Amino acid sequence: MEKPTAEIIQRFEGLLPDDPRVERRSMFGMPCAFVNGQMFLGTFEDTLVVRVGADRAAALHGQPGLALFTTPRGGAWRQYLRVSPGLLVGDPLPGLVAEALRLAASEPSKAPKAPRKRATPSTKATLSS
Length: 129
Description:
Elements: H1 6-15, E1 23-27, E2 30-35, E3 38-44, E4 47-51, H2 54-60, E5 66-70, E6 76-83, H3 93-106
Antiparallel strand pairs: 1-2, 2-3, 3-4, 4-6, 5-6
């Protein structure tokens, strides 16, 4: 998985709403934005990822620069669009980001996940005679 380009990170930062509810975090080492624990905007390699809901994503899929987001393993995130800014006609991104923020803010808050426990070597001492 490639890291986001500097241009995508700059575009992401320029699209972040000035809203005190917005929290910046990383997911898989890539900058993302959350509200109420729900991701609404993120970066992925040389694209942006915007959560607009399954019906809206399906309706927009196939327009220049817009596609359903799929993971490198082929899993589909049906609520998310993968946006290639260089391929867009006009600039629908500010409107899509505002739509994504409204959608995520309307969802129930997600409780933060507990950190994963790392496997540790056995602490048992072996006795040798």
